[in-house]
Amino acid sequence: MSINKEKPILFSTDMVRAILDGNKTMTRRIIKPQPSMTSGEFDSWIDKTGTIFCTSTIRMPIYCPYGRVGNILWVRETFRVPNPYGKPDYEFKADWDSYNTGINYKWKPSIFMPKEACRLRLKITNVKVERLHNITDEDAIAEGIEKTEFGYKNYNNTYPVKEFMGGVTEALQSYKSLWIYINGKSNWDANPWVWVIEFEIINK
Prior knowledge:
Layout: E1 6-10, H1 13-20, E2 26-30, E3 42-47, E4 50-55, E5 62-63, E6 72-76, E7 79-80, E8 91-92, E9 121-131, H2 137-142, E10 147-148, E11 151-152, H3 161-164, H4 170-183, H5 185-190, E12 193-203
């Protein structure tokens, strides 16, 4: 795997805003397929193909599909082309205020964004593997959850997390609500193994 190889990665509009604001420096992505084991920790090492992970009990190597430390991720985000004729002039939903998202515009899903429209590239600074529920307060904040004057955002409704989740650690519960909003409650309850990818912006 070339150290300069670029791969695409999708982010929601909220998370693009968090990256641009410098509040999001890591992302968690579900490992597919899930390792077929119920216990044991992951070991990792690096060779010419990149960072390799395997469990201590089952020596079956898995490779991070997003790359290794030093690789570049180019961000796909929700976009549109105001003028479909002539040279494309791209606009991005993340540039709109969260309360005024250009509701009358026809936005295109991030999966369809071509590389030529990319305005945001991220350099991978660390890759690790862990269970989803092992996320810490510090990592939950680094995931870019939004903090309001009332507390961390509940992504399942418009009120602070504390008022709807028993006042448990707010940062973790906010991230939980974000994960459930994107992936569903059953996925959170399954506590899957995830890639934990840390990054820094190299252009914006």
